């Protein structure tokens, strides 16, 4: 007899999201006020430097927020600075956000602990440019699907 494993069921309730989410993997850095930021683009760093500078990769993103995994633990309600690095800009988009949820991930005993988090965007520097970038990515993806 084959062993059957149960998996958690996906949420099947109403979608309460205001904005469409897009699964594009942006490099991001999330810091609290007062923590130092660096000017280098993440793509120019080694993997160790990425970790040391708290660089993560987005799981999904919208004009309203972002979901990502990090080794840093920010409590829900915390105000954070989010830098979203885009291949179309020399400098990142700087965003003020609020942690709305976090979930500790269980990866095994050797891991130092990671968290999956959702951040709501409160203020986006260059908001129109950011919206245009996301719209262009969605348009490009739709064109690939339709061709």
Give a verbal description of the structure.
By secondary structure, the chain is an alpha+beta fold. It has a single domain, classed as predicted glycosyltransferase like domains (Thrombin, subunit H), CATH 2.40.10. Helices cover 18% and strands 34% of the residues. Strands 1-2-3-6-5-4 form a 6-stranded antiparallel β-barrel. The longest helix is centred in the last third of the chain and has 20 residues. The chain is globular and about 40 Å long. The N terminus is likely disordered.
Give short descriptive properties of this protein.
147 residues; alpha+beta; Thrombin, subunit H; 6-stranded antiparallel beta barrel; 2 helices; 6 strands; disordered N terminus
Summarize the structure.
With 147 residues, this protein is an alpha+beta fold.
- Examine the coordinates and then state which fold CATH places here, giving the name of the CATH topology: Thrombin, subunit H
The amount of beta strand, in percent, is 25-35%
- Give the spatial strand order of the biggest sheet: 1-2-3-6-5-4
Radius of gyration: 17 Å
CATH superfamily: predicted glycosyltransferase like domains
């Amino acid at each position: 007899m084959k062993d059957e494993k149960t998996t958690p069921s996906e949420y099947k309730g109403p979608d309460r999201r205001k904005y469409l989410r897009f699964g594009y993997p942006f490099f991001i850095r999330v810091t609290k006020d007062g923590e130092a930021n660096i000017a280098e683009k993440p793509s120019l760093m080694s993997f160790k430097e990425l970790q040391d500078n708290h660089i993560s990769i987005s799981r999904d993103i919208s004009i309203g927020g972002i979901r990502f995994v990090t080794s840093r633990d920010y409590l829900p309600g915390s105000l954070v600075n989010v830098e979203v690095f885009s291949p179309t800009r020399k400098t990142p988009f700087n965003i003020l956000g609020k942690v709305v949820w976090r979930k500790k991930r269980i990866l095994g005993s050797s891991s130092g602990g990671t968290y999956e988090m959702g951040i709501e965007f409160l203020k986006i520097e260059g908001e129109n440019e950011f919206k245009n970038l996301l719209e262009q990515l969605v348009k490009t993806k739709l064109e690939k699907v339709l061709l």
